[in-house]
Amino acid sequence: MADDLVEHGWSQQNIFLPAQLTLELAAECHLLAAGGALHAARVGRGTAQTIRTDIRGDQILWLKAGQSAACDRYLHIMENLRIALNRTLYLGLAEYESHFALYAPGASYQPHLDRFRDDDCRTVSVVIYLNHGWLPEQGGALRLHPQGERTQDIAPLGSRLVLFLSADMLHEVLPATRERLSLAGWFRRRPTLGN
Ligand code: OGA
Ligand code: MN
Q: Nearest C-alpha to atom 8 of ligand 1 is from which residue?
């Protein structure tokens, strides 16, 4: 994965999360959504945040350590990945933040970068999919636009992980004909002085 990140700016692992854990996380996301715990994701930063479903149509909930056994197992796996990436790439990844994301049928996320102008701490972006038996004709691909390489469409199939460099990789989420669940996350480095 580290080699792919350096060479291409992204990496894909098709069977990253154990199947059982993927099911448990999907069930938890559904339950939270049914209980009204998810909220419309916003675009922009600070006081300029607005809901713009034409730009970004997902419903999200940030994860907290200790919220469930399944989330803690997931966060533990990501902590091991953080340590492994630091060992091979010396990126100085200091922490991990992650949210559930639910895209209703037809919802999308227009092309964007994950690094904010006023916050350059997000270094490696992660998406893990929680959708059992996803078919290509159901849409909902993550479309990557690697610089100088072919566009990549990646179906949001359960247990699959995609990693990319937050500052460089332009990407978007295409609309789907069924509900699309994922965990999005970011490995962050410590802020530099004046940030
Ligand atoms: C994001 C994002 C991609 C996906 O949440 O910033 O780009 O495939 N998600 O869900
Ligand atoms: Mn993104």
A: 142
Looking from the CA of residue 114, the nearest atom of ligand 1 is 6
Dist. CA 157 → ligand 1 center (Å): 14
Burial-class residue 181 by CB neighbours within 10 Å (0-12, 13-18, 19+): buried
- The string of pLDDT tens digits covering residues 84-125 is 999 999 999 999 999 999 999 999 999 999 987 667 899 999
Dihedrals φ, ψ of 12, to 5°? -130, 135
User: Domain extents for the chain?
Assistant: 2-39+56-176
Q: What is the pLDDT of residues 179-195, one digit of tens each?
A: 999 999 999 999 876 55
Task: Give the whole-number percent of the chain exceeding pLDDT 90.
Answer: 90
Going by C-alpha positions, the residue among 126, 69, 136, 137 that lies closest to residue 101 is 126
- Rounded Cα distance, 53 and 41, in Å: 8
- Architecture in CATH for domain 2-39+56-176: Sandwich (2.60)
pTM for the whole thing? 0.95
Q: Closest ligand 1 atom to the C-alpha of 41?
A: 5
Both tokens of residue 37? 């715990």
Rg (CA), the chain: 16
176 pocket-lining for ligand 1 (C-beta < 6 Å)? no
